[in-house]
């Protein structure tokens, strides 16, 4: 098959994890960038990247690289593409734009010029114009501009890849599935111990851990990928990838989830059933203050409340309880905690061996590792114990501090690069907007415009669902093909891909090959 360039988008801080996934998948020419990894492959690799990658937000296929100094040059370059290769008059399309340039101050204007160029191409060649649809288009296009360097791409994913399909029940501030998978991979958990999340919420970390442990690809639950509406879509190839469960395996350990909120416990159980992994997950309503030493070796990976979107009466007391329970009831274990505020981390009262800067939505967070031991640190080291390995020291030396330039709004504005992180009515967008206004009050509107330009939209034309959280629950999900009453079959080796297709894909329009 023909080899071509591809780009996998991800969250800042997960680039190396994504590159490792691509290496294991067999991709070529892997290059790490900022919030993206470029690689090359054929059509099968593009399909597999969408189907198999756990830490990718979307997969783009560049179709033209060019240089432009103004909107007219963008228009001419886009219009020069042979659009009949990608679109028909009956095909609806939409354009997403990401702009970091002093020459192009408004990303929406770039998207409009790109749309105009495509429409004018068809008017001049056929006398008719194609249809533009912002939400749920047949073809999604992406134009990325960094100063004068422009890349025009086809979006092969369609909806963000974080929308796995299993999370039909949710609670406030659910962690993004891609971020959850990234946290697990960053921790180095090899599925050789039990897994515990004492603040499980809707169970995203639990389900992602179970899918990794069973080596079930995240794309198995997807209703549709963007490339399925392309002219060269190969249904037999996708069927072959979809129906191949030869890499799946058994998992001999257990995954435990706890949460004080009964609604969260019920949501987590529902999502575990939807994903077909409820037989290896135990979810219990329990306060962190009642956490006890597990019977078997385990790793803790958790996303406790930060006091931003979920507020508890005594947030600092909560984090003190986390530290106390870890110190006295998780001896010999390894705990990883992602959180936002330094003062909350301080309440844990334990020294982390590693700190990894990450973003959770719009929040600049840290993912910290705590190596737990009994007694004093000097005694632990005298006995041959080591809190921080040489590899962790090297890793820390290569990473910038998580809160470097904390007051500089440029760090937050960088997250517009993906253009799919937030929706206009999402809590993440509201927080980002408030930070922008706070900067303006502090430094003045003129300084804001000088540094950031006039664009205050933060991507109001994005439409659809965003990577910042799963916005489809309840009635919206009833047509998605999941059994509302019982999920997948449970017990033992729960199912294979044929079972998933037969039990859960019948309402879909996809016609999979009969076996």
Largest sheet: 8 strands, mixed
Alpha carbon gap, first and last residue: 25 Å
The percentage of residues in β strands lies in 15-25%
Strand order of the largest sheet: 2-3-1-4-8-7-5-6
- Uncertain segments of ≥5 residues (pLDDT<50)? 399-424, 450-495, 501-515
Question: How many β-strand stretches?
Answer: 15
Helix content bin: 25-40%
Structural class designation: alpha/beta
Q: What number is the mean pLDDT?
A: 80
| Count of alpha/pi helices | 16
User: What would you call the shape?
Assistant: globular
Radius of gyration: 24 Å
What would you say this structure looks like, in words?
This protein has helices spanning 15-25, 43-52, 71-79, 107-126, 177-187, 204-214, 235-243, 262-274, 315-329, 342-348, 377-382, 390-398, 409-413, 427-443, 445-452, 497-504; strands at 4-9, 28-32, 36-41, 58-67, 92-100, 131-132, 139-146, 149-155, 194-197, 255-259, 281-285, 298-302, 334-339, 354-360, 363-371. It is an alpha/beta fold and 515 residues long. The chain is globular and about 75 Å long. Mean pLDDT is 80; it is low at 399-424, 450-495 and 501-515.
């Amino acid at each position: 098959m023909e080899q071509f360039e591809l780009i996998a988008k991800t969250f800042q801080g997960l680039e190396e994890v994504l590159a490792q996934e691509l290496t294991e998948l067999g991709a070529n020419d892997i290059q790490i960038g900022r919030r993206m990894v470029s690689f090359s492959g054929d059509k099968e690799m593009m399909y597999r990247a969408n189907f198999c990658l756990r830490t990718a937000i979307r997969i783009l296929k560049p179709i033209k690289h060019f240089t432009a100094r103004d909107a007219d040059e963008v228009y001419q370059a886009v219009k020069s593409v042979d659009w009949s290769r990608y679109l028909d008059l009956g095909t609806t399309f939409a354009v997403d734009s990401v702009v970091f340039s002093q020459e192009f101050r408004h990303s929406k204007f770039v998207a409009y010029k790109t749309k105009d160029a495509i429409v004018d191409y068809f008017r001049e060649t056929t006398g008719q114009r194609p249809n533009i649809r912002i939400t749920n288009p047949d073809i999604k296009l992406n134009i990325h501009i960094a100063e004068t360097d422009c890349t025009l791409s086809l979006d092969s994913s369609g909806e963000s890849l974080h929308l796995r399909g299993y999370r039909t029940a949710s609670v406030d501030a659910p962690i993004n599935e891609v971020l959850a998978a990234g946290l697990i991979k960053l921790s180095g958990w090899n599925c050789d111990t039990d897994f515990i999340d004492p603040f499980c919420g809707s169970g995203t970390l639990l389900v992602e851990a179970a899918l990794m442990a069973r080596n079930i690809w995240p794309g198995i639950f997807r209703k549709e990928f963007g490339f399925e509406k392309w002219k060269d879509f190969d249904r037999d190839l996708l069927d072959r990838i979809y129906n191949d469960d030869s890499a799946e395996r058994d998992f001999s350990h257990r995954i435990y989830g706890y949460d004080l909120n009964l609604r969260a416990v019920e949501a987590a159980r529902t999502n575990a059933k939807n994903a077909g992994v409820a037989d290896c997950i135990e979810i219990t309503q329990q306060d962190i203050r009642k956490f006890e030493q597990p019977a078997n070796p385990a790793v803790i990976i958790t996303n406790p409340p930060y006091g931003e979107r979920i507020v508890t009466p005594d947030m600092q007391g909560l984090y003190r309880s986390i530290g106390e329970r870890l110190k006295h009831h998780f001896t010999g274990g390894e705990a990883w905690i992602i959180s936002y505020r330094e003062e909350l981390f301080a309440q844990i009262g334990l020294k982390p061996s590693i700190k990894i800067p990450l973003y959770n939505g719009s929040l600049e967070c840290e993912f910290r590792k705590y190596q737990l031991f009994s007694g004093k640190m000097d005694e632990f080291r005298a006995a041959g114990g080591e809190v921080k390995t040489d590899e962790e020291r090297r890793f820390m030396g290569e990473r910038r501090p998580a809160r470097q330039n904390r007051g500089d709004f440029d760090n937050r504005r960088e997250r517009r690069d993906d253009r799919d992180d937030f929706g206009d009515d999402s809590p993440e967008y509201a927080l980002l907007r408030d930070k922008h206004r706070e900067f303006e009050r502090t430094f003045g509107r003129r300084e804001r415009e000088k540094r950031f330009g006039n664009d205050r939209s933060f991507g109001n034309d994005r439409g659809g669902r965003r990577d910042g959280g799963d916005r489809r629950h309840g009635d919206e999900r009833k047509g998605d093909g999941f059994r509302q009453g019982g999920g997948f079959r449970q017990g033992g080796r729960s199912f294979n891909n044929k079972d998933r297709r037969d039990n859960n894909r019948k309402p879909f329009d996809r016609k999979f090959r009969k076996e």
